[in-house]
Amino acid sequence: MDRNDELFDRARRVIPGGVNSPVRAYGSVGGTPRFLASARGAYVTDAAGQEYVDLVATWGPALLGHAHPDVVAAVQAAAAQGLSFGAPTEGEVRLASLIAERVQAGGLAPIEEVRLVSTGTEATMTAIRLARGVTGRDLLVKFDGNYHGHSDGLLAAAGSGVATLALPGTAGVPASVAASTLVVPYGDLDAVREVFAAHGERIAGIIVEAAPANMGVIEPPAGFNAALAEIAHDAGSLLIVDEVLTGFRVHPAGEWGREVEAGHPYEPDIITFGKVVGGGMPLAALGGKRAVMEQLAPTGPVYQAGTLSGNPLSVAAGLATLERATPEVYAHLDRAADQVTTALSAALAAEGVAHAIPRVGSLFGLVFRDSKPADYTSAKQQDAHRFTPFFHAMLDAGVHLPPSVFEAWFVTAAHDDEALGRIVEALPAASRAAARA
Ligand code: PMP
């Protein structure tokens, strides 16, 4: 029994399941979750002193690598000035401006105003309330397997931990709340049009993951999000693009920016951000055109608030991270993803394991089927049991992967040749283990 086992035993006595967020519990892969003691660059170290190359990156935020010295220094400097004020600060103004400036492409600038919140869940929850407030309508269209956080109306057919645990939804959500969410298969524009034909005048908005990454990674069909914008706008509804995971990760202007540059321009009404925008501290955001955003209190009737919103330490981490997320950083992430995906595919092919590696920018996932999935139904049609031995072989070789086949893998700017080399070396044995399963 090592230190991780001891801690997990103690944790389970005082914390439900021993974890503060379900997918951390290794529910689908089994075994003892690693209790992390520190994280630096591309590496994490567990409570037993074992070091791993990390491909979780705290589920996305660590774009520059863990504990980047400039980000840590910025947080320390902010802490010395006071931990929280509950009053406006200069840093918030700088961060909101930086977000609006960065999210521009092809002559489009969808963000004029930004509201800072503390979690991605809050950002999407507020975005939906705002869409309902602006339109005076109740219904929301979401996609099967898209995850937008754990607020009541959004846990109908969500991915991420819900996908892993194969729950249909969750207990504790009133049927009346779930009934105002219309769930449509991802990628199916005809289904979206049908829902609008039937209920169009009651639909406040569509919410979509800019690129789905919570049922594994799914590459959005070319022009899909642009078509959603058109359908929503024709019906007087809003399009909410959830970039909590993809924002500032897959491209300097998020997945929206990547698509505009690829020749599929569209104007989302609200974009939500989280993860990278807070540089590893609790911070998330929503942004949009002034006419929409000013419907939020205090200028408008849609209420939203937060004691710790725009927390000065989080803002400092977000600013320090975004200021350093240069084109060179994105080029490095892409190269690191190239190296890992090429080696991963070669190792699995050498063992005759059917697989596909869907990829969006530097974000990618592994599926044990011979073609990339298009939606949640096809994402679930894979030899998922192969992931358990694969995951544990990687862990034994010192590589920390997300503990579920339905999660994306995250590289960082700190994944240098040595870190990438350690991942590549671990792949053949893990692929053999997957082949035997
Ligand atoms: N939206 C998306 C697309 C996400 O991936 C997540 C979290 N993984 C959320 C929303 C919720 O964010 P948070 O966990 O910060 O509440």
From TrEMBL:
The keyword Lipid metabolism appears for this protein: no
The pathway it acts in is: Porphyrin-containing compound metabolism; protoporphyrin-IX biosynthesis; 5-aminolevulinate from L-glutamyl-tRNA(Glu): step 2/2
Which NCBIfam families does its entry note? Answer: hemL, PRK00062.1
CDD domains hit by this protein: OAT_like
Q: Which cofactor does it need?
A: pyridoxal 5'-phosphate
Q: What keywords were assigned to this record?
A: Cytoplasm, Isomerase, Porphyrin biosynthesis, Pyridoxal phosphate
Record-linked Pfam families: Aminotran_3 (PF00202)
Tell me one GO biological process term. Answer: protoporphyrinogen IX biosynthetic process
**What EC number(s) would the UniProt record show?**
5.4.3.8
Question: Which family does the record assign?
Answer: Belongs to the class-III pyridoxal-phosphate-dependent aminotransferase family. HemL subfamily.
Q: Which reaction does it catalyse?
A: (S)-4-amino-5-oxopentanoate = 5-aminolevulinate
Q: Name one GO molecular function term.
A: transaminase activity
Its protein name is Glutamate-1-semialdehyde 2,1-aminomutase
Residue list for modification N6-(pyridoxal phosphate)lysine: K275
The superkingdom listed in its UniProt entry is Bacteria
How is this protein organized at the quaternary level?
A: Homodimer.
A cellular-component GO term for this protein:
cytoplasm
> Where in or outside the cell is it found?
Cytoplasm
Keyword Isomerase attached: yes
